[in-house]
């Protein structure tokens, strides 16, 4: 069956980079399918996989998403009820939380228990935002979307906030940045990365390819 990847366009995210990365991963994996960048809720109903990118402030991204007619409801229906594979990237991952605490308290999706809090490195020499390449720490074999990746591989980050999960079981990977910082979360058919797989070169393409093959 041909895959259909819907990347949600709500005015926030590296949409061109994300689309090109998914198109390349499809080709390299030898999968038949297509990638659509869309602001239409109906496109999620036709999709096999759903991707929610995000760049900027939590509240701004939430408002942008809710401004799209029917999109929030479509995400709940297609991801939560129908169980389609879902990938949230950067703020797209943060929106999965119960709330974001950037510029006040703002409600999230509530799919992952926890809150999005400011980075507070113990080392004052470490700057915020956390920007650049950092080493992923995770348990090998923990999740099929990390297949083929080795602990210690590097991914690309740009962020000032991170998802502090209430359940340790939801944390898939962490990085060290003046303390442990959530790098990826997973629960059921949902996965989220604080880093940008579309900017993480071979590591990112491997993760995207695994996501496309994933059957939660």
Helix content: 25-40%
Largest sheet: 7 strands, mixed
Strand content: 25-35%
Order of helices and strands: EHEHEHHEHEEEEEEEEEH
Describe the structure.
The chain is an alpha/beta fold and 216 residues long. The chain has one domain (3-213): Class I glutamine amidotransferase (GATase) domain (Rossmann fold). The protein is built from six helices and 13 strands. It has helices at residues 15-29, 41-45, 58-66, 71-81, 91-94, 201-213; strands at residues 3-8, 33-38, 49-52, 86-89, 99-100, 106-107, 114-118, 130-135, 154-159, 161-165, 171-176, 180-187, 190-193. Strands 2-1-3-4-13-12-11 form a seven-stranded mixed beta sheet. It has a four-stranded mixed beta sheet with strand order 6-5-7-10, covered by helices on one side. A two-stranded antiparallel ribbon has the order 8-9. Strand 5 and strand 6 (106-107) form a beta hairpin. Helix 1 (15-29) packs across helix 6. The longest helix has 15 residues, at 15-29.
Write a concise keyword list for the protein shown above.
Rossmann fold, seven-stranded mixed sheet, four-stranded mixed sheet, alpha/beta, 216 residues, globular
Secondary structure: elements and pairs:
Blueprint: E1 3-8, H1 15-29, E2 33-38, H2 41-45, E3 49-52, H3 58-66, H4 71-81, E4 86-89, H5 91-94, E5 99-100, E6 106-107, E7 114-118, E8 130-135, E9 154-159, E10 161-165, E11 171-176, E12 180-187, E13 190-193, H6 201-213
Parallel strand pairs: 1-2, 1-3, 3-4, 4-13, 5-7
Antiparallel strand pairs: 5-6, 7-10, 8-9, 11-12, 12-13
Helix pairs in contact: 1-6
């Amino acid at each position: 069956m041909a895959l259909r990847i819907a990347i949600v366009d709500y005015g926030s995210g590296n949409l061109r980079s994300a689309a090109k990365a998914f198109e390349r991963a499809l080709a390299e994996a030898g999968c038949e399918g297509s990638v659509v960048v869309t602001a239409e809720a109906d496109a999620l109903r036709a999709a096999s996989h759903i991707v929610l990118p995000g760049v900027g402030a939590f509240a701004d991204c939430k408002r942008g998403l809710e401004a799209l007619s029917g999109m929030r409801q479509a995400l709940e229906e297609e991801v939560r009820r129908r169980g389609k594979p879902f990938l949230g990237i950067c703020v797209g991952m943060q929106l999965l939380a119960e709330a974001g605490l950037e510029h006040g308290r703002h409600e999230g999706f509530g799919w992952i228990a926890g809150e999005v809090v400011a980075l507070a490195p113990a080392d004052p020499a470490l700057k915020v935002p956390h920007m650049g390449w950092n080493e992923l720490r995770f348990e090998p074999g923990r999740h099929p979307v990390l297949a083929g990746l080795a602990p210690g591989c590097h991914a690309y980050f740009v962020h000032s906030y991170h998802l502090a999960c209430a359940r340790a079981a939801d944390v898939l990977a962490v990085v060290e940045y003046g303390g442990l910082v959530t790098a990826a979360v997973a629960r059921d058919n949902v996965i989220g990365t604080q880093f940008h797989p579309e900017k993480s070169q071979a590591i990112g393409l491997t993760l995207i390819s695994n996501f496309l093959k994933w059957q939660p």
